[in-house]
Amino acid sequence: MTVNFQYVNIDTSETLSALTEEKLKKLANKFEFLISAQVYFKHDEKDRETGKICNIELSLPGPRLFATSNKKNYEMAMTETIKDLERQLKKRKEVFSTH
């Protein structure tokens, strides 16, 4: 699975990229049909409390899956987004297995 990163209004972080890629690889091992992932890390200036946004879009057979979260740091946002995607992937796998 290929993973593309985009950092919007923030500096690039190698450690954040490595951590995200590691978690996405675990997801790819569990769900073999994943093709690629687009990961966006953004900073929202208006939101003082949280404002650290992680968007992930997964490419796979059928419609793409998308999840986003807004937390007080990027690691928490990334973890929450991947949990959301995993829930969506479990539902998609159930649909695939019934046919």
Automatic annotation (TrEMBL):
This is Ribosome-associated translation inhibitor RaiA. NCBIfam families: yfiA. InterPro entries: RHF-like, RHF/RaiA. Pfam families: Ribosomal_S30AE. It comes from Winogradskyella litoriviva.
